[in-house]
Design brief:
The chain folds into 2 domains: 206 residues, D-amino Acid Aminotransferase, Chain A, domain 1 (2-Layer Sandwich); 188 residues, D-amino Acid Aminotransferase, subunit A, domain 2 (D-amino Acid Aminotransferase, Chain A, domain 2), CATH 3.20.10.10. The protein is of the alpha+beta class and 445 residues long. It is globular, with a radius of gyration of 22 Å. Helix 1 packs across helix 4 and helix 4 packs across helix 5. Strands 1, 2, 3, 4, 5, 6, 7, 8, 9 and 19 form a 10-stranded mixed beta sheet that branches. Strands 10-11-12-13-16-17 form a 6-stranded mixed barrel, surrounded by 4 helices. A hairpin with a 3-residue loop joins strand 2 and strand 3. It is built from 10 helices and 19 strands. Helix content is 23%, strand content 24%.
Length: 445
């Protein structure tokens, strides 16, 4: 089975490149392209066109959407794609084979030094009956940057894209049938260092693999009743139920990422240390942590999602869509984030359909600034954006013992979050023909 063809985004679309990478990332990519001794080597490249195929002899049942099996996030499709790399030979032939465990040594680099990076994207079943991926090339390019940051091997992002599409083409028909239009599966490309040497060094062996999981629709789960903690006053939680995400601002002594670090890379080391704060937030009835930075309480991310706010500029009164900048490299360069910014610049530059135009701004902003805007009536709405929660309105932020209730026009969402979410949904599920929607031709019927 040859991988399906790729339809590239137009040259007018910005994609992550090494030009935006830090000096450490650039150095990592240069090393990845060498033979491990700093000199260019003739190592085998990642070649998706040579992929071998072994289909499962034990197919498994497909769970219902939002069933206990799906909610558990443990069920994966029948197959996976793997490719092994060694410093001596480069990339071996990729394999599409039955999903299942693989073996690594107890001394493997990933288990001791967190040499692991990953991506998250979705395979959509469109209302027109077709399968689609959304801007998959951006995920592949970003994964290359992440791999460079933790000294994992280089690869051609287009080859990874072909591997992803081949797996989606194989398992999509069964696991995302046409009867489930408007549904999705979660695609997880991952790379781990498998070198069994215990020394702190660049791994000389690695494994790249792609799996597809049944995943609940987080946006639908937001419609479920609020946790009991939100109906009372225990532990400083919100005193009343409000629609949208409830965020607990991080404490002064808790930092997710810092300038010069690796907050911009999608590596496992960014997520494990955040679980304690996330657990505390949920125990107090909140959905996620709003990560702040510095004594000024700069707003960075909401959980593992990018954070957006719509508010009026104090002096001019101009309406702005604001999100944290990428330059300090303490937030993830989200695919959904980039898409929202591009659509807003294109479609919200002028007022339309009773929606006021907004100026798109990427800059630092603080929680005290949001509190002041709320007090002055200039705070219009806020929302989080990412692969898991998609575009999720934010209804409340708990900061330093006080609740900031975020306005919502229309009850359960602000008008900008609702409008942008609809635009993206139309592209993802085929209601709008767009270059960002990459059609996957099904090979298994």
């Amino acid at each position: 089975m040859a991988p399906a063809a790729i339809t590239p985004e137009s040259s007018g679309t910005t994609t992550p490149t090494t030009a935006t990478a830090s000096s450490l990332t650039q150095a990592g990519i240069k090393h990845m392209q060498s033979n491990g001794n700093g000199a260019a080597g003739e190592l085998a490249p990642l070649d998706a066109s040579s992929m071998t195929v072994e289909l499962t002899k034990s197919p498994r049942p497909v769970p219902e959407p939002m069933s206990p099996e799906t909610m558990a996030q443990k069920t994966c499709t029948d197959h996976m794609v793997t490719a092994r790399w060694t410093a001596e030979h480069g990339w071996e032939t990729p394999e599409l084979k039955p999903y299942g465990p693989f073996s690594i040594m107890p001394s493997a680099s990933v288990l001791h030094y967190a040499t692991e990076c990953f991506e998250g994207l979705k395979l959509y079943r469109g209302y027109d009956g077709r399968l689609r991926l959304f801007r998959v090339s951006r995920n592949c390019a970003r994964m290359r940057k992440s791999a460079a940051r933790i000294a994992l091997p280089d690869f051609d992002p287009k080859a990874l894209e072909k591997m992803i599409i081949a797996l989606c083409a194989q398992d999509g028909a069964k696991w995302l049938p046409k009867s489930r239009a408007g549904s999705f599966l979660y695609v997880r490309p991952t790379m781990i260092g498998t070198d069994q040497a215990l020394g702190v060094q660049r791994p000389k062996e690695a494994l790249l693999y792609v799996i597809i999981a049944c995943f609940p629709d987080m946006s639908k789960s937001l419609a479920t009743p609020a946790p009991p903690a939100l109906t009372g006053e225990a532990n400083g939680a919100a005193k009343q139920q409000t629609p949208g995400l409830k965020l607990l601002a991080s404490a002064e002594d808790t930092i997710r990422a810092w300038p010069g670090g690796f907050g911009y890379a999608k590596v496992g080391a960014n997520y494990g240390p955040a679980l304690v704060a996330q657990g505390e937030a949920r125990s107090r009835g909140f959905d996620q942590v709003l990560w702040l930075f510095g004594n000024e309480s700069y707003v960075t991310e909401a959980g593992a999602s990018n954070f957006f706010v719509v508010m009026r500029e104090k002096e001019s009164g101009k309406l702005q869509l604001i999100t944290a900048p990428l330059e300090e490299r303490i937030i993830l360069e989200g695919v959904t984030r980039a898409s929202i910014l591009e659509l807003a610049k294109e479609r919200l530059a002028k007022s339309q359909d009773n929606i006021e135009a907004v100026e798109v701004v990427e800059r630092r902003f603080t929680m005290p600034e949001l509190l002041e805007a709320h007090k002055d009536g200039r705070l219009i709405e806020a929302f989080a954006a990412g692969t898991a929660f998609f575009v999720a309105p934010i209804g409340l932020i708990h900061f330093r013992g006080k609740d900031l209730e975020v306005p919502m026009d229309g009850g359960d969402s602000g008008v900008y979050a609702r409008t942008i979410k609809q635009w993206l949904t139309n592209i993802m599920w085929g209601k709008e023909s767009h270059e960002w929607g990459i059609v996957v031709d099904e090979t298994a019927q």
